């Protein structure tokens, strides 16, 4: 039997005047889980986080922590801490004083406070910089101090609102790994907000992808990548080719789609009825240039190479199809790159395509 949720959102909604920012969201978050609220700007993810923290009151719905309602409690009475994108460190205090400030306000004895501060700084690899002022630290170091200040209070839940947004790419990737390691080391539940889908895929146990104030899909990172429930999810998570067509047949979890003059086959977890409009989603890494006879059961399309682009690990091949669409294939290292203007056939295993609707 799985553990009961540490945090539950039940039919949570938030309206600002005539605008509905969060619309009937229900979600159960497990102890020790790293759950990410992912979505574009305006999708409702930050408003949801602020309601969990107690900075916003819901218009409707309930928030429960370990089964007890906390919806009406102020932030300081919830066993929850928040790390923001802007670190808000006290400039006149040392690193050590910043981290220990909350403990001092709560009346924690000096000896215990010093021990807990030292342990928190050690966890974020800042033990040697405890006497520095925030202005003497890099952005990444300041972010570590903000994390230490949050975890020193030993919250049951840690909320992180795009905390890596101000960091450069290399440092952001390093901090992603460190945050994931801290989550496992501390056993604290992390609820993380980001608009960066790669960040969400890297760190999360589960992702709640939000759209127009609702959860569009809730699943593990690989399931969300491999089995998106809609065109929106397929397009938001990773890179994909989306081809518009009409469903001509549905059987045993498969759909046939007529796209231009070609019929293509794809997996269909929830296939629309025959005759309905749908999209075929296929990731560029599954497309390859057919240089001989096609494999049995392969889908294939023919088009003209518009351009090629070397991006390090692969070369992207942009192919214009007769109907006007353009698809992208990833050409692996060591394979010949077809020249611009040449006609190519692209193939992929039918099981690597997915039939989705809006």
What do you see in this structure?
By secondary structure, the chain is of the alpha+beta class. The chain contains eight helices and 20 strands. Strands 6-7-8-3-9-10 form a six-stranded mixed beta sheet, with helices on both faces. Strands 13-12-11-14-20 form a five-stranded antiparallel beta sheet. A five-stranded antiparallel beta sheet has the order 15-19-16-17-18, with no helix packed on it. β1 and β2 form a beta hairpin. α2 packs across α3 (110-123), α2 (95-105) packs parallel to α4 (139-151) and α3 (110-123) crosses α4. The longest helix is centred in the middle third of the chain and has 18 residues, at 169-186. The mean pLDDT is 92.
Q: What value does the average pLDDT take?
A: 92
Sheet/helix structural class: alpha+beta
Order of helices and strands: EEEHEEEHHHEHEHEEHHEEEEEEEEEE
**What percentage of amino acids are in beta strands?**
35-45%
Helix content: 10-25%
What would you report as the Rg, rounded to the nearest angstrom? 25 Å
Task: Describe what is shown at a glance.
This protein has 358 residues and is α+β, with helices and mostly antiparallel strands.
Please give a handful of descriptors for the protein shown.
alpha+beta, five-stranded antiparallel β-sheet, 20 strands
Layout of strands and helices, then pairs:
Blueprint (H helix, E strand, L loop, with lengths): L6 E10 L2 E11 L4 E6 L5 H9 L6 E6 L2 E2 L10 E4 L11 H11 L4 H14 L15 H13 L5 E5 L7 H18 L2 E6 L2 H7 L2 E6 L2 E6 L1 H6 L4 H6 L4 E11 L2 E6 L2 E6 L9 E6 L5 E2 L8 E13 L4 E6 L5 E6 L11 E7 L3 E4 L2
Parallel strand pairs: 3-8, 3-9, 6-7, 7-8
Antiparallel strand pairs: 1-2, 1-4, 4-5, 9-10, 11-12, 11-14, 12-13, 14-20, 15-19, 16-17, 16-19, 17-18
